[in-house]
């Protein structure tokens, strides 16, 4: 049974005339009559009394008409609701976010600012690295970028204030973590020695955190002896390897402090090894949507309060 057959039947029930109903449905009368016949065959019942002038509905037809009216009403309401949902989705502002910030910061921040229903994460962005986020802004793939920022990014000059503007939302502490041993002591501890370097799970060199960590290590009064095991793009990947005991790694403090799977995490060194970066929200100075500017102004007002 096809939906248009139900619409045909309602048109015939209203007009009680095959020719006028066919005209309403924008089909020829033979085609219309054939569709009504197919409908009756599908229902295994006679719905139209063709012996009366004007046409009338049989008792089965009256029952069927009530069902058709409910279905078409529900369909119309559903279509309207879907249209509203689609319109709202179009109005939602697209956000590109690093995987780490998406997993442990975005939801709480969006709820706190009351913006969750107006923002949509571009899930592809959780696989982007470094400058990919600014490329996405330039290309119109996202309206906003949620990322880390610090003065040691090798491509920091790209954030031209004539082209971009930003808000610093919070400061993030990046802390070296390691799994603990059975006696409760850290399995790996900075700074290590030349004979026994500390195995380290590193960040991708094109990412946001690698250069900040290297700069902190270079400024330490103690020389760090590290044995890089591998390079990862995401904090979650580093955390998983750290928790399985392969080595130590720098993680956002809130991300490392709350995990219990595989074993408890502990600091792999004192606070002198902590790295501090900004969590920034970035947009084009001339955004493509007025909704972006409206939302941005609301955020600025919240920060000023």
TrEMBL record:
**Alphabetized SUPFAM superfamilies for the sequence:** Periplasmic binding protein-like II, Winged helix' DNA-binding domain
Tell me which InterPro entries the record gives.
LysR_HTH_N, WH-like_DNA-bd_sf, WH_DNA-bd_sf
Query: Which terms does the record give in the GO molecular function aspect?
Result: DNA-binding transcription factor activity; transcription cis-regulatory region binding
Q: Which UniProt keywords apply?
A: DNA-binding, Transcription, Transcription regulation
Q: The HTH lysR-type domain covers which part of the protein?
A: 1-58
Pfam families tied to this protein: HTH_1
The family annotation for this protein states:
Belongs to the LysR transcriptional regulatory family.
What protein is this chain from? LysR family transcriptional regulator
Organism, scientific name: Tamilnaduibacter salinus
